[in-house]
Please model this.
Amino acid sequence: MKKRIDKSLAFREKEFNLRPWQLKVQEVIYGTYTKTGKAFDIILLIIILLSVVVVMLESVSYLNLKYRLTFITIEWIVTGLFTIEYILRIVSLRKPLSYIFSFMGLVDLFSILPSYLSLMVDGTAALMILRSIRFLRIFRILRLSRYMLGADILGEALKNSRHKITVFLISMLTIVIILGGLMYVIEPSEAGFTSIPRSVYWAIITITTVGYGDIAPVTPLGQAVASFIMLFGYAIIAVPTGIVSSEFTNIKSEGMKAFECPNCGEKDHKKAAKFCRSCGYEFKD
Amino acid sequence: MKKRIDKSLAFREKEFNLRPWQLKVQEVIYGTYTKTGKAFDIILLIIILLSVVVVMLESVSYLNLKYRLTFITIEWIVTGLFTIEYILRIVSLRKPLSYIFSFMGLVDLFSILPSYLSLMVDGTAALMILRSIRFLRIFRILRLSRYMLGADILGEALKNSRHKITVFLISMLTIVIILGGLMYVIEPSEAGFTSIPRSVYWAIITITTVGYGDIAPVTPLGQAVASFIMLFGYAIIAVPTGIVSSEFTNIKSEGMKAFECPNCGEKDHKKAAKFCRSCGYEFKD
Amino acid sequence: MKKRIDKSLAFREKEFNLRPWQLKVQEVIYGTYTKTGKAFDIILLIIILLSVVVVMLESVSYLNLKYRLTFITIEWIVTGLFTIEYILRIVSLRKPLSYIFSFMGLVDLFSILPSYLSLMVDGTAALMILRSIRFLRIFRILRLSRYMLGADILGEALKNSRHKITVFLISMLTIVIILGGLMYVIEPSEAGFTSIPRSVYWAIITITTVGYGDIAPVTPLGQAVASFIMLFGYAIIAVPTGIVSSEFTNIKSEGMKAFECPNCGEKDHKKAAKFCRSCGYEFKD
Amino acid sequence: MKKRIDKSLAFREKEFNLRPWQLKVQEVIYGTYTKTGKAFDIILLIIILLSVVVVMLESVSYLNLKYRLTFITIEWIVTGLFTIEYILRIVSLRKPLSYIFSFMGLVDLFSILPSYLSLMVDGTAALMILRSIRFLRIFRILRLSRYMLGADILGEALKNSRHKITVFLISMLTIVIILGGLMYVIEPSEAGFTSIPRSVYWAIITITTVGYGDIAPVTPLGQAVASFIMLFGYAIIAVPTGIVSSEFTNIKSEGMKAFECPNCGEKDHKKAAKFCRSCGYEFKD
Model:
């Protein structure tokens, strides 16, 4: 956690040629541990949630008929606030371009764009998805250190295991394609197995244990193959779990046995240790 | 376990100015290791189960028609016993208020309230839920030490991993909202995707591998997106599992290497340590 | 594994007052590592599988019409062989009663009983289940050491975690009963929520991520509660997994760090070690 | 990884009596780390994917009517390229037979066979499955070291746990057969439980938490048994996960404490060991 805070301080120090109001704006918008920064985060959280709830309710036809004006009003207020925030973010930074083209910068942009586009274009459907993307802004709030640590560990565990997960996904894809092809031949098209892509879709539904039941085998042979896929899917769910679990355990134990005693070479110390657990040598770092 | 028992003894010692009958009642009601306490627990367990079974069967219309009188009789007997128990719990304590407003105290109150309310009000439906809450009383029986230890470990593992699980749930929520919005645009409303909230509901059904099949994509593009959500949901089930698993392993291994330095009180030593990691004191055991 | 074999030898040594033919029969029937014992196991495996396949196919009405005679013939041959085996098991033992009333002994008895009962009684349905029980005999074949070790570890892991799993199951039961009661009030009976037991049945279908779809919420509020149950079920599947995983890891690591060096006290040795890894002292066990 | 590369070099050295063009072909086709080898892999990947996509789309009837000629053309181009590759693989090896009858060799053969067979035979259905098998060729691309390591660990974890998984699968099979038999007796055939095999199929759908809903219990007793199967299936998913997880953890930690004694060759030492656990030899590194 310490490294993270230091980096953020270093960041601010380098920007000493900013005007006072820019520093003030930064403290509010980018600050995580300051009082005003926290208040800003909470207000932002409420606006994001409100805005996403409005997008969702607007799609419910009878609610849209009834509260159309309310929804449009809230939408434009939210868009206004987001636009002000977006402009403040840009003008308060020395190098605004790196923010604009960062992932979160683009998310911020796409949070306000759809409303302005709707004035010109008429494609409500596509704009609706863009407006859903707004929910990604929620990750801004997770800057809070205790969540970031969790997110860091999650991210690292997933990153470390990406090769194994790739192999696993390719193996699963191979299985569903071959078994999907097999079921297309075995089952009659009346049961829903009208093409190989549809059969593969069914195989994915089955192997992941989702099981909609919109397509289901009707012949005894097909049901036998289906049983095999189910048992297989049930057994191999252990594989991604095992991969990620062992990564978590690994990350944890690595964080605990970091450094070597310069006197006796004993390696198995916790990071916080002040004395070697083997020879009693005092560490002076 | 020792700490738990000590605390309970300390609790009783402080209450020395209680009358003998109050101590006797306490021994029966709150006692876990005494003979009478165990007998009380078993009788309580039977009454709770009987009472919940009656609540459930009462909701089956043809059984209610047939055995209405039996159900009402049992209900009032149970309510009577629970009321007596509730009064005894209160009068036998020196500070009854802290019990009354504790979680289990409120559960105890809500276990008897619905029956008395039903004499005055006529809202059977709402009262039925309140009566189901009665089942929470089952946790009283779990006071038995061997279950409490299990519950403690469960609780601690979940508590330790709450930040990671929060990040995980927010990530999942983000995914289902964005993919739900996408599916609302892709799929026709005839397939059940009539609004974004419904589409999000479908996305949750799919990503958690529940798969009712009441709403299911019909277009090839929608089925492709659905396949992606399923594979994703299947892969990321590893994440909560990995989080909790590593916590369990952690709690276990930590419980194995915890002894205290007699010099400085530092607790966090491995069993094999020869010197205190904090003050360098040499262990001579 | 060594202990297991020793025990089996000790068993045979005590039975020295058995006749030679009894020892021979024992070698064939109970022997796991002898040539004849292995051959017997394989033949038994084939007969068990054949017999269970016949029970299953017999229940398919059109196959039963067509091959009725074949099925009955196979059934009686299998019953005959099982009867002979059962008698041989009894007569070759010095204390047959402990076998007869053991779990596997009762399974053996119930494997032959239904056929004889069918001559007297006419309840085909009940007898059919009894005949399915025959499949339990498959566990006889698993006597082979390498599977037994696996089964032992499985069994121990489940045994060690039984208290935690009990707490977990009671918690789940509490949740499904309360949420089932809630859904019964929220949802109309047309959606399938006709009684609390049925609603609890639905809650179990949902929380375990099975999701038949025969009962599914239709009101927005009901769907919101359902979404919560699904996410909850998806998250807490980590709990039993974490419990069992940590037990497995535990059993493994315990088997590895068994005993103490009498010279320097170093504890962290593998069972197979001949010298202390810390001071080089030679173990003379 | 080093061992893998060494072996591959040794392989090539032994083939010194190959002609230059054979070595060149080998470098392209079998090379993983060479520039041309990588380019070849990427082109092969694209062709395989294209070919599988064509097989899948061809099965969609309206697409087949529209683009029939395009599909056939692509199919024959792919078959041509695969044939050339297959011949090159054979002629560039000194011992082509061991390749031809290897698993990947047969996959390569079955990738081109169906097209040629379609000229003679008329069984489109069976040929379609054979063509799906082509997707297995994707594993050729996974030769890349970083994926192979992942695949190796996956493979080893599954191999180490095969006995435990066998015991687990047999136990599950026993449960579904007995509970399937039970449900066949309990439930009316109108609910879909028309025979024991179908009931077992339903039990598999339920215990693996797939839950199609094509067959679902309708009687209260049947639903109670179903609830039990679901909770059971939900709880025991922990078992394969626990098995595989602990294997992963095991492989990892073992990979960390393996160095060899220079005196006796004993391999199984912890990193911290100062003396060989087998012969007492003192390590002086």
User: Anything to note?
Assistant: Chain A touches chain D through 50 residues (CB under 8 Å). The radius of gyration of chain A is 27 Å.
